[in-house]
Amino acid sequence: MSLLLDNEFKPLPPDKCVDTEAFLEAVSHLPSFFDCLGSSVFAIIKADITGNITKIKTAYLKDPQKFVTLQDLLISEREAQADKWPLVGATLALMWLKRGLRFIQILLQSLADGERDANNPNSIRVNVVKAYEQALKRYHGWLTQKLFSMALLAAPCRSNFLKALSKGEDVGEEDCLAKVRQFLENFTPTVDAIYEMYTKLNAELSYTV
Ligand code: CIS
């Protein structure tokens, strides 16, 4: 069984509210994936994402019955810390986590769509750059953009990346991409719903780091 399908996201309900517990369970498997990528530059990204998840989980565990959906969490923080919100707690952590999730979504979709550099078909550079430009670049100052360039140099080749997604199992490329497409069926609407929630609650910030 592939890594992706071991950790599928749940389908969204009709009201598109994301269940906090199910979301935290699904994203909790993400950080360990960075260990398969084989470069220490990914440790920085892993630490950042792990910190986001821990912060959201800590806020959720204060009152799981109250914070059934991610929206419940954000609204509660808005009421409790109106002067600082949305630059606080789980609201800020999820704001950044969703950008990382959008990066992953665009990267996987681009691979699933077969987008490649004709001169270097075993590279994922075009896919990674597309994901970065659409999901993260506008929030990064020059220093963090340099960090991205370093991560890009350390990015695995396409075949190794697909193998890592399959937990090192010897599955064919097409089988792996079929599983990526299946993973995206629930993952993409979940990420979209979180973005829509930030827009609706006016919780999005545009500062750079
Ligand atoms: C394969 C090649 C990948 C290349 C990846 C290049 C990515 C870009 C590299 C940039 C380095 C960014 C390092 C960190 C920067 C942080 O400064 C920045 C801002 O941080 C936030 C904190 O998170 O700052 C806030 C204050 O202003 C807060 O401190 C906040 O923390 S809080 O609030 O919690 O306390 N952070 C970012 O810019 C976010 C960077 C996210 C990068 C995501 C990159 C993901 C790369 C993934 C590649 C592999 C794809 C894997 C695909 C699929 C895996 C499927 C796994 C299945 C399991 C599913 C579970 C989901």
TrEMBL record:
Stretches assigned to the Glycolipid transfer protein domain: 18-166
MF terms (GO), sorted A to Z: ceramide 1-phosphate binding; ceramide 1-phosphate transfer activity
SUPFAM superfamilies listed in its UniProt record: Glycolipid transfer protein, GLTP
One GO CC term on file: membrane
Keyword Nucleotidyltransferase included in the entry's annotation: no
Keyword hit for Transport: yes
Cellular compartments annotated: Cytoplasm
Family annotation (Gene3D superfamilies): Glycolipid transfer protein
InterPro entries noted in UniProt: GLTP_sf, Glycolipid_transfer_prot_dom
Family according to the record: Belongs to the GLTP family.
Role according to the record: Accelerates the intermembrane transfer of various glycolipids. Catalyzes the transfer of various glycosphingolipids between membranes but does not catalyze the transfer of phospholipids. May be involved in the intracellular translocation of glucosylceramides.
Protein name per the record: Glycolipid transfer protein
Record organism: Tetraodon nigroviridis (Spotted green pufferfish)
